């Protein structure tokens, strides 16, 4: 049996509420549900149970202080010159980058192939397809929106279950931040 995993931070309800309140104005966009809103630190992908257990155990050894994080502004990722995903951005944050680098090292030590994409912290707001409307007005209206900040006190290992109506994410383990050995 394989598990489709990722490691992420989950914004608290007030920040998720502000994100949801912004989700409007792009026809045909598949807006994310509250349960889907997260900031991916590392996509792991399909792994067998043994690898999943090794990773879960290794992540438990990560030590790092809590830190403040802020979501601000929006943008879009393009594929073949067309937007395919709308996201909320993250204010520059060195602590977040340190956490992501520690997680990357742990993933590699657990036998997971190195991530080759540059870390671009964001929270996905919507997925788009060829029938989705233009995103320019939405991006202009939300370019400097401050969605809120929070004190990141934990991160989680999540499992993704693919469904026709969108992915269902289940937190498998919650890892506290704040304890520094």
From TrEMBL:
Classification via Pfam families: 2_5_RNA_ligase2 (PF13563)
Top enzyme class: hydrolase
Catalytic activity: a 3'-end 2',3'-cyclophospho-ribonucleotide-RNA + H2O = a 3'-end 2'-phospho-ribonucleotide-RNA + H(+)
Motif placement: HXTX 1: 38-41
InterPro entries: Cyclic_Pdiesterase, RNA_CPDase
EC code: 3.1.4.58
Active site feature: 38 (proton donor), 122 (proton acceptor)
Residue span of motif HXTX 2: 122-125
Domain of life, per lineage: Bacteria
Spans traversing the lipid bilayer: none
Record key words, sorted: Hydrolase
Similarity comment: family membership: Belongs to the 2H phosphoesterase superfamily. ThpR family.
Function: Hydrolyzes RNA 2',3'-cyclic phosphodiester to an RNA 2'-phosphomonoester.
NCBIfam families in alphabetical order: 2_5_ligase (TIGR02258)
Protein name listed in UniProt: RNA 2',3'-cyclic phosphodiesterase
Organism: Qipengyuania profundimaris
């Amino acid at each position: 049996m394989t598990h489709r995993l990722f490691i992420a931070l989950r914004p608290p309800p007030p920040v998720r509420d502000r994100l949801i309140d912004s989700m409007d104005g792009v026809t045909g966009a598949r807006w994310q549900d509250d349960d889907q809103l997260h900031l991916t630190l590392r996509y792991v992908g399909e792994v067998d149970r043994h690898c999943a257990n090794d990773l879960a155990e290794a992540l438990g050894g990560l030590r790092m202080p809590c830190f403040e994080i802020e979501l601000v502004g929006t943008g879009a990722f393009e594929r073949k010159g067309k937007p395919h995903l709308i996201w909320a951005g993250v204010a520059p944050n060195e602590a977040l980058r340190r956490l992501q680098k520690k997680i990357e090292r742990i993933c590699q030590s657990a036998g997971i192939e190195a991530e080759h994409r540059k870390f671009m912290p964001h929270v996905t707001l919507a997925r788009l397809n060829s029938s989705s409307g233009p995103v320019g007005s939405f991006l202009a209206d939300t370019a400097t929106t401050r969605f809120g900040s929070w004190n990141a006190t934990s991160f989680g290992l999540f499992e993704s279950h693919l469904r026709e109506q969108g992915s269902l994410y289940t937190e498998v383990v919650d890892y506290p931040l704040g304890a520094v050995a």
